[in-house]
Amino acid sequence: MTFQNTREFAKQLDAEDSLNQYQDQFIFPKVNDKRVIYFTGNSLGLQPKRTKAYIDEVMNDWADLAVEGHFYAEKPWWDYQERFAEPLSKIVGALPSEVTVMNTLTVNLHLLMVSFYQPKGKRYKIICEEKAFPSDQYMFQSQVHFHGYKTEDAIVEIKRREGEHNIRLEDVLAKIEEVGDELALVLIGGVNYYTGQVFDIKTITEAGQKAGAKVGWDLAHAAGNIKLQLHDWNVDFAAWCSYKYMNSGPGNASGCFVHEKHHNDPDLPRFAGWWGHNKERRFKMEPNFDPVHGADGWQISNLPVLSLAPYLASVEMFAEVGMDALIAKRDKITSYLEFILHEIDQEVKGNFEIITPSNPEERASQLSVFLHGEGRSLFDYLMKNGVITDWREPNVIRLAPVPLYCSYEDMYDFGQILKKGILGK
C-alpha cells in the first residue's frame, strides 16, 4: 500500500479497520483535557472498560459469600485459574493443559529454572542475549551463584556486531554450537525490550535442544503481541507478564507454559505447594505432594483472584478478536508509523534512526528510534503535548502502536506534534 501523510488518509485507514471499535473499550489518560496518544503499551497497557465489572464481581461475591465464594461464587475461586486455559492457549499456541497463571514474571522464571536449569558436570552454562531486560540479568546471576558457579564462567551473552543494533540469528546459532556440550540452558527474551527485535523462537529452540540443552523464553514483550506456536515449536518452558500487551493492570499475574512432554516426568524437580496438588484431593490436607497433571502442577500458592479478574477480562477480549486480526493490524499500523517517522524526518531535515528491524518478520508492535541531534527536551515536549511514550538513554524513544487501542489518526497526529516539537525549539 502507498501511504500518505494526511489526516484524510489516516481517517480512511481507520474507517477500514475492523478493530477500530475496540478503541472505545479502553480508558485513556488525558493531557490538557484531551485524550492522549498512548505509545507505552509495551510497559503498561491501558485499562479496558470491562475490567471493573470483573473485579466488582469478585468483590461482591466476597461480601455476600465470604469463604463460601471458593465454591459458590458465580466463578468459584478454587478453580478460577482454569478459565484461562482455553483463551491463553490460543494466544501463545499451546495446548490448554500446557498453560497456567500464577505469581509474577521473574518469580515464575525462577521457579521454572528449578525444573529446567540443572547444571551437572561440564554442562552448566546459560546462553542469553546481550542487554537482556535487567530483571533477567539479575535472575541469571543469582541462579548461577546459587548453584556455585561464577557469573563470568556460566553466563554467555550473545552480542551484537560492532556498529549493529540487533543480534543476528546466525550469531545465536554459532554461539550455541560453540558452547556445545557445556550448554545447560538457552533463555532469551522473545522480543528484545530495547530494540523491539523479534527472535526466531522456532529455529533457536531447535538448535539449543540439538546441543542437549533445555530452551525457555521470556515472553514479556511477545505474549499478546506476536504469533506464538510454543507447543509446535517444542519450547520446553516460557513465562510472560500480563500487564503489557494484555492490559491486565500494573504488576499483575504472570502466565506460564510447560510443554506436555514434561508433564509426566517424575524425576523433574519443582518447588511444590498445595495449589499444585491433585485438585480433587487438595482439601484433604495430605502430607505427600501429588501434582495436578499439566502446567497447573507448577502452581504453589492459593491464587490471587482479585488480580486474576482483570486478566480474565483481557484474555476474553483477546478471544473475541483473535491473534490473526491483531497481528494484521499490528503490521499495518507499525508500517504506517514507520512511514510517518520517515516523512517527518525529511520535513525537519533531521537524523532519525529506527533501530528496530525493518523486516516485518523481525519486529512487532514497537519502533525504537534514535533521535540523533535531539535530547530529552523533545521527549518532555511530547509528553506535555499528549504523546505518552518511553525514553531510554542515551536518546531513544520507544513507540508501541498497540493495535487494540491505537488508531491511524493517532499516528498522523503524533507526526505533527513531533514536527512542531523539533521546529519550535
UniProtKB/TrEMBL annotation:
Listed EC numbers: 3.7.1.3
UniProt-listed InterPro entries: Aminotrans_V_dom (IPR000192), Kynureninase (IPR010111), PyrdxlP-dep_Trfase (IPR015424), PyrdxlP-dep_Trfase_major (IPR015421), PyrdxlP-dep_Trfase_small (IPR015422)
Top-level taxonomic group: Bacteria
Pathway listed: Amino-acid degradation; L-kynurenine degradation; L-alanine and anthranilate from L-kynurenine: step 1/1; Cofactor biosynthesis; NAD(+) biosynthesis; quinolinate from L-kynurenine: step 2/3
Modified residues (N6-(pyridoxal phosphate)lysine): K244
Residues where pyridoxal 5'-phosphate binds: L105, T106, F133, P134, S135, D136, D218, H221, Y243, W274, N302
Entry protein name: Kynureninase
Organism: Flavobacterium psychroterrae
Name of the gene this protein is made from: kynU
